[in-house]
Amino acid sequence: MLRSIISLIIPLIGAAWLLAEEPLPIGPKPETLRVLYAGDPDSERMVDFREFLEKHFAKVETTHYSQVSQEQAEKFDVVICDWSTALRRDKTGRVIRSDFNKPPEVPKLPENFDIPTVLIGGPGTAVANRFHLVLDGRSGGLENYAHDSDLEHPVFLGPLPVEINFEEHPKSIFYYPHRGTKSLGETMPMWKVHEKAYPDIDHGIASRRNNFLATPGAEVISGGLNGWNPRSVAIGRHGNFLQWGFAASPSDMTPTAQRVLVNCICYIRQFRGEPPQPVQLSATREDHLDWLYRMRQASDIYVDALVREIRELQRHPRYPEMPNGEMTDAEAKAYFRDAGQAFNRENILPRIPREVRQQTRDDIEAILQYYEDNLEYLYHDSTMGEPAVWRVDEEAKQLGIPNRSPLILWKCLEMLESDSDSTLAKHLLRRYTGRKFRDAETLRNWLEGNGKLVFEEGGHFFAWIEK
């Protein structure tokens, strides 16, 4: 039974840095574009997509998902990769457990493939994985609502006019063990992308946000209601690839979503010849805080809500049947609570300094509050061996200056010039620049150097980048 619940839950839980400072332009008019749709030729979905695309674009052709090639793609402005479904159903439409109709082989596109491409849902993510994109599809269970959309982004501005109507909608319970959700039962502004949701149709797919911020040529366009993280990316771009994580066919989309999808296809056209740059892995203090929030998976409030969610899903006539010998609510809660506590014990608590654990007595909410309160003063300490931990820099905190603000370096200069506390200044400079400065003049010359002084969160120190 335990494995049964896990197999059903995994699918549910399964600010961009642009190179140009000026806003990117709206995409070309759709009636000028040639589109190749690569999907399931034996499905109603391909018919639906073709009819939808032909209403908007100059030329539309279709091909098999796994057979699209570089030579074929070069004849079109945009390629769309999609598949019909990842699920099999019985005659009544009920999902058959553990019987997945996975898409065929991922198309064999060259590593330097640079044709603008839109990746739809899970099958699109399979293509993304081939190219090692930030569009990693690691946030499963994308539902039928979008949130945290960047309405200033070109896809919401044209070429087709778009009017987004938000409504207050409950957050996913799976957001609770992630930063940004204070309690269960919260709502947030969302707009509906399509009418049906799982198990009536497949889940969509979203990607983790963290590495978007560190990777050039990657941008976040919109989040979406998913089974993992409130900051996951449902619509995003990396190089010449654009992820549309929502799973519905066009005929099931709202008119607003249809127009946004057309705009996304138009938008990605301008990135022809701009393949994705390598992913820059993120290792920021916010990432550490995200990791700590996973401790909430062991909390009573989350476990109780999780079991209620499972029971609610089981009432749906198309939800997979559970095998005989199902757990009682009490047994299910005990299992999930024990699993969460074991995860915390083995993976999270060893990364928290002993003094913090003693101060908080390993209370989950107390630990989270401690790190939230001291977020701007954390530093990565690997001096005690593995695993490295994030500590609070009490010296920077005493100065009242965030340790990732260049102001702390200028404060060190002030202390050196006045000789008020040169020992502390040199200590902080060594920690946050990795350099030893002979005197105040040497530091001033470095601070007044050419370029832009930034705090490299991944390396945990300040460095210059060229203008």
Structure description:
This protein is an alpha/beta fold. It has three domains: 9-271, Rossmann fold; 285-392, no CATH class; 403-465, no CATH class. The chain has 15 helices and 16 strands. The chain has helices at residues 2-13, 44-54, 70-73, 121-130, 210-214, 255-268, 285-293, 300-314, 329-348, 354-360, 364-373, 394-399, 407-418, 422-433, 440-447; strands spanning 34-39, 59-64, 78-81, 117-120, 139-142, 145-147, 167-170, 187-192, 204-206, 218-224, 233-238, 241-244, 378-381, 389-392, 452-456, 461-465. The strands form four sheets. It has a ten-stranded mixed beta sheet. Helix 8 crosses helix 9 (329-348), helix 13 packs antiparallel against helix 14 (422-433) and helix 13 (407-418) runs antiparallel to helix 15. The model is unreliable at 1-21 (pLDDT under 50).
Tags for this model:
disordered N terminus; two-stranded antiparallel ribbon; 467 residues; alpha/beta; 3 domains; 15 helices
Quick structural overview:
With 467 residues, the protein is α/β, with parallel strands linked by helices. The protein has helices at residues 2-13, 44-54, 70-73, 121-130, 210-214, 255-268, 285-293, 300-314, 329-348, 354-360, 364-373, 394-399, 407-418, 422-433, 440-447; strands at residues 34-39, 59-64, 78-81, 117-120, 139-142, 145-147, 167-170, 187-192, 204-206, 218-224, 233-238, 241-244, 378-381, 389-392, 452-456, 461-465.
